Amino acid sequence: MIDIYYKTLKDEGFDKIPEYKVGSWINISNASIADLSKINKLTDIDINDIIDSLDKYEIPRIEHIDGNVAIYARHLSKLEEGLHTMTLTIILTNNYLITISPQKSPIIESILESNTKIATTQKSKLLLFILLKLTQEFTNNIKSIRNNVVELEYQKRKVTNEVIVVLTKNEEVLNQYLSTLVPIRNLLEGIFSGRYISLYEKDYDLLQDLMIAVKQSEDICTLSIKSIRSLRDAYQILFTNDVNKTIKLLTAITIIFTIPTIIASIYGMNVSLPLQNHPHAFLIIINITILISLISVYIFARKKWL
Questions:
Q1: CA torsion sign, 73 to 63 to 198 to 121?
Q2: 3 state SS of 190
Q3: Which site among 33, 104, 105, 304 is 20 to 30 Å from 263 CA-CA?
Q4: Residue 102's pLDDT is what?
Q5: Quick check: is 96 in a domain?
Q6: Structure letter (DSSP) for residue 142
Q7: CA atoms within a 13 Å half-sphere pointing along the CA-CB vector of 151
Q8: Last residue of a domain, one of 118, 136, 152
Q9: How far apart are CA 125 and CA 149, in angstroms?
Q10: DSSP 3-state assignment of 85?
C-alpha cells in the first residue's frame, strides 16, 4: 500500500496527499511487486535494483542505484515467529524520500503521527531522524532485556526450565539485534564519509550523535549477551550440583536398604547359621540390622550425602 505525505516547516504534522508531489515522503507498507512497479514508473529506478527491499532477511547497507541512494536498514518486528527484526528500505531521489517495508512498520507509523519540526523536503534530516528513531527503539528494547537478565541474576537459587527458556530467547533476540546494529554502524560511517549524501553542518552533528547512540546500543547488546551466557553457565553449574546431590542421596539410600536385604538373604539360605537355634534370634538379627543401618545413616550424614 502506497501513502504519500507532505510537510513544510510551518506544518505541525504530516499531511496525507492524494498525488505525488516534489519534496513528498512516499511510504509503502506491506510492499508488493506491484507497488515497486509504480515506484519504477515514478522514479525510473529499475525494479530489480530495489527487489531486495522485500527480502525480510536483508542485511543493512547503503548503495547507489541509478543516481539515487538506497539505504537498507532493519527495524524491530514481532509479526513473525523467530524473526525479531524486519527490513526497512529508505530511498533518496532528487524529488522524493521513499520508505519501503514488507510489513507495516510501527516505527514509521509513530513518526508519521509525531509532531516533529522536520519537513519532508529536508530529505537528509528526515533520513537521519528515521535512523535515530530506529536506534532508540533498539536501545530501549535492549535495556528492557538487560533489566530482565539482571533480575534473573538475583534468582540463581530458583533455577527452573522456564528461566533457561527465557534466557535462551533473550539471547536469540539480542543476537539478531547485534547482527543489525553492527551493519547499521558501518552504514552510518558510509553516510558520514559524504560519498552518498550531501549533509549540512548541523546534519553532521546529528549524524555523530546517531553514530554514538548506535555504538552504545551495540556495546549494551554485547554486554547483555555476555551476561546471559555467564548466567546460563552459572545455572548449568547449579543444575550439575543438584544432580550430583541427588545421585549421592539415592546412592546412600540404596546402600542403607541393601544392608537389611543382604542380611535377610543370608538368613534365608538352607545352611547352618549363627543364632539359628537361639529363641530370640529374630529380634537379635533385627536389632543388629537396624544398628548397622543407623551407623550407615550417620556416616553418610557426616559426609553430607543425606
A1: negative
A2: helix
A3: 304
A4: 87
A5: yes
A6: H
A7: 9
A8: 118
A9: 36
A10: strand
- Dist. CA 179–CA 80, nearest whole Å: 18
Which of 58, 89, 118 is the last residue before a domain boundary? 118
Residues 277-299 have a mean pLDDT of 85
Write the Ramachandran bin of 103: left for phi over 0, alpha for psi from -120 to 50, otherwise beta: beta
Q: Residue written as cell 554485547? A: 222
pTM: 0.74
Would you place residue 111 in the very low, low, confident or very high pLDDT band (cuts 50, 70, 90)?
confident
Q: Report angle CA 268, 270, 271 to the nearest 5 degrees.
A: 110
Q: Where are the alpha helices (DSSP H) in the chain?
A: 33-43, 106-113, 123-153, 161-192, 201-266, 281-302
Q: Cell digits for 174?
A: 539480542
In whole angstroms, give the CA distance from residue 208 to residue 226. 27
The CATH number linked to 292 is 1.20.58.340
Confidence at residue 52, expressed as pLDDT on a 0 to 100 scale: 84
Q: How confident is the model at residue 149 (pLDDT cuts 50, 70, 90)?
A: confident
**Is the separation of the CB atoms in 53 and 100 below 8 Å?**
yes
Q: Which residues pair with 16 in a beta bridge?
A: 5
Q: How far is CA 127 from the centre of its chain?
A: 26
**What is the tally of structural domains in the chain?**
2
Cβ pair 67, 46 in contact under 8 A: no
DSSP state of 272: -
Q: Which domain holds residue 18?
A: 1-118
